[in-house]
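From the shared-data thread, chain only:
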Amino acid sequence: MPIFYSPGRHGFFNSDRHAAIPEDAVRISARAHRKLLDGQKTGGKILAGSNGHPRLVLPAAPALEQLRDRALRQVRREAGRRIEAAVPIWRQINDAADMARSIDAGIEIPPAAVDRRELIDALRARSNVLEQFVAAGTAEQLAALDPSNDEHWIS
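Structure, as tokens:
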């Protein structure tokens, strides 16, 4: 089954499936077709070369700033996940209300609320350390960073 690539239609055609093959289509081998499709699966783009034959264009490596933005989002998402897992939002809201009432009444803040606040503060402090690492990290360091690794979150 002959395979053709049409630069005008940006697509592949074969005579077994298509009654009409575009006039600008060029014939390619089954091996080249498979290689192009495999490359497309991994992020490459299939574009026509100057001669009309398809070629695979691999995406450029992300810029350092893009890597930092991505890593920063991952760190913040992981910090939020860990804080929420340790102290659910409903508990944080209740603790804040209890603390405010205690301060207004001039009484001791409930120790459990203080403990939970200290846990949240410790997680935020670790997140701040990771954010500083992201701000100064190289592309290789950022690519290797796994914010979900528990070692990053132990004080």
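The first strand starts at residue 3 and ends at 6.
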